[in-house]
C-alpha cells in the first residue's frame, strides 16, 4: 500500500539547518524526509501485522509513530515482565517510500528515534544492519547502497516487544511502569554529502569558553572546518573560527572564547545557534550543520552542593514519564510543550526523565523555556549488560549531549545501575556532567528515595554529602505531592547540604484499554499517581506546590491594627532580582462588586536577600474583605496570588445575623425536649443531652440533627437549665469538673438565628481532629456555598495553595485520581471558614456563621482505597458535617502522615485539669430560616 509521503524539516536542532536561514540557500545541508509523522498528532499509516493478541494474524494498517496496544493490537502489559507468554508478540511493518533521484551519490541514513524493543530493518528485502535492542534510544543505518533512487522503495521492520537480550528485559521490561510495543517515535531519512559531519558535541562554559568536537565520516575533499555563533534571530555573535586538519582525520576540535555571553539557566534560558561548515581545497562548503546550545557550567562541589554557572542551586523537581492515556509513550510537540509549561507553572525548575530518555522535542522545550533536566539511562532494579549498556549510553549521549537543560545524568534507577558504565558517562560526554545513581549514594550525592522527614541517621541528614532525593513524597490519590511538601521544603531550603529533590510523579499513568471498552487502567494502585490526572486535570496539590515553591516568599502576615501595607518577603530565585518582577494588588468586597486595584514597585532584592514590599493602600481599605497580592515573573506570567483577609469571621457574622428583628421566642417542654419557635423556625433540643433533634422552617424539614457531638472527646453535657433574656431563650448545661466538664450553651434569637457555644476538652493529649459533628443526609445535598479558602479541600499537612473568597461547589463523589473526575472534590476538610451555606435538592438551605478564626468545616467522608502498607489512610470524624479546630494530615504511598513532618502530626492539647477557663471554645450561628 502506497501512502501519501510526508516531507519537511524536523525539529531536531541537532541535525538541521533551515534553508536560507543565514543568507542564500546552501547546497550541502542535510536533507530530511519523514517516513512517519513527527508525533501522535500527524501519524502516517503503514501496513502492519501483529502476531498475537488483539487484531492479530492479519495484515492491516497502523499509525506510525504509535504504541500498538493503543491502536488495538497485541496485549497490554504492566511492568515486572517475568513470564515467557505475555508480551511476546511481534509486529511486522511495511511502508513504501520514494527517494529523490538527486540523492544518488549521497550518504542516506534511516533514523529511528525509538522502537519497543528489538528492531530488524530491511530495505528492499535486504538487511539494513544488525538488530537494534533497546527501546528508548535513537539509532540509524546507512542504507545508501540499498535504495532505488528516483523510484519506490520498500521498508520492512520487524519489532519484537520482548527483547532477545535478557539484560534489556531486565532494564526495561521489568520496571514498575506500562510496557508497550511498536515504532513509538518518529522515523526519517537524512541525506548527507559523501564527506559530512556526523555529529557535534559542544561544551559552552559560563566563562565564554566554547569547545566543540566535530565528528566526520571522512574528510574526503575537506581540509578545514569553521564555526560561527549566532543569536537565534540570525544576528552574528562571534566568529568565524576555524581549524585545519590532515587527510584521514575524522574528529577535529574547534574552540574560541566569547566575551560575556548571556548564560543559560531555568530563569533566563538564553540560547544561541552555531553553524559548522566543512570546506574543500577550493574554499567551497562541503557540508554545513546547525546546532542550538547554551552557555552554562555545571559543577559538583563535594560536601557543599551542585552549582550551575557558579550559583548553588536547589532542584524543585518532578519525575515525569513520557505518557498520554490514548497514545501511551508516543507524544507530540504540543503535548510536550503543555507538560513543560505546566511544570513551570508550578514554580518548578527541574524535571527527571523517569526512567528513560525522553523524546527530543521535550528536551528542546526544556532548553527554550528553562528547566533543569536529569536524563536517565533506563534501568529499574535491573540493568543492561556492559556491552549493550555502553552502546545505548553512547546513543543517548550522542543525541542529547548539546541540550543545556541536561545538567545531570542518571545511571539507571533503584538498583538498576551498571557500575561498569559510570566511567563511560564521562568518556562520552564532552561536558563531563555529574552522574547519579537514583536511590544510592554515589559521587558525593545522596539520592535515597522516600526518606521520612525525621530521618536523621547516617549520611542522609546528619552526614556531609549533598542530599538530592530523586523521588520523595510518593503520590497516592490525594496524599503526597503537596501534602507534606511545606515541611520538607522548609528543611531542604535551610539545609546547606540539600540540593532539592524530585516529587513522584507528574501525572497519573492511566492507559486507555482498547481491550476493555476504553476504560482507564492504572493496574490497580501500581501505575504512577500524579499531581495531575490522567488527562492532566489539576488536583489540589498542584496549587499547594505552586505556593510552596514560589520563588517569591511571603512571611506570614495578618492585617491587624497598625498595618501599614508592609510585607516581609524573601527572594528565592537563583538568578533573578526581585526588581525584575511585577507586583499588583487588589482590594475586594466579596459580597458585591466593590474592588480597588493598584501596583507596587518591586524592591531591589538579589537572590537569597530579604526585604520589604510596601503597598500604598487607600485609607479606607478596612471596608474591604480581602487583599490579594499577585507576583508576576520577568516573563509576565503569574508566580502566585496570595490572599490576606481583612474582615474577621465575627465581622461578617455580625453583618449577616444581627439585623433581623422578630417576635419573642417561645418554647414548651415535652417528651424530654425543648420545642422552640423563633419566627418561622421551629426546632427541638433534647433536654437531657442538649443535642439538636429536629429543625423546620416555612418550607419544611431541615434534617441537620444529632449535634453537637464532640469528636476526639466526650459528649458529656448534663443538667441543662434555661432562661429568658429579654426576647431570647438561653439553654445551658452545668459545668462539673468530673462528670460534665464540657459545656454547651444554646441561644435562640427571635430572628430565628440559633447560637451554639461549646467549651470543651479533647479526651487525649494528641488527637487527629478536634471539634463537633452533626448528622445530615448526604443524598439530600445539592451543593454548598461558603466564604473561606478554596476551592480545594485541605489536609493538616496541605494548607497552602487555596485562595480566600466566596466559593460554590456542586455535590460530587469524586475520589481523587479515580474516574469520572470532577475537581475540586466536594467531600473533605475546608479551611478558614467564615460562613457556610448547605443547599438541599428540595431547594431548602441553611447557613452557618462563626466567631472563630481558623475554623475548618468538613463535608462527609470521602471514599478512598486502602493501601497494603496502610500509610495513605486519611482520618475523618464521625457524623456527616463537622466544625473543627484541628484536622488530620494525610499519608503518602510510602509514608504515614505523621512521618512527613511536624504539620502532619496529631493535634496536641494538654490540659488534664479540665479548668473551664482553659477549655477550647467553638461558637457557631445557625440561620435555619431558609431566606
Automatic annotation (TrEMBL):
Residues 60-193 form the Glycosyl hydrolases family 2 sugar binding domain. Residues 732-848 form the Beta galactosidase small chain/ domain. Residues 1-27 form the signal peptide. Its cofactor is Ca(2+). Keywords: Calcium, Glycosidase, Hydrolase, Signal. It catalyses: Hydrolysis of terminal non-reducing beta-D-galactose residues in beta-D-galactosides. This is Beta-galactosidase. It comes from Polluticaenibacter yanchengensis.
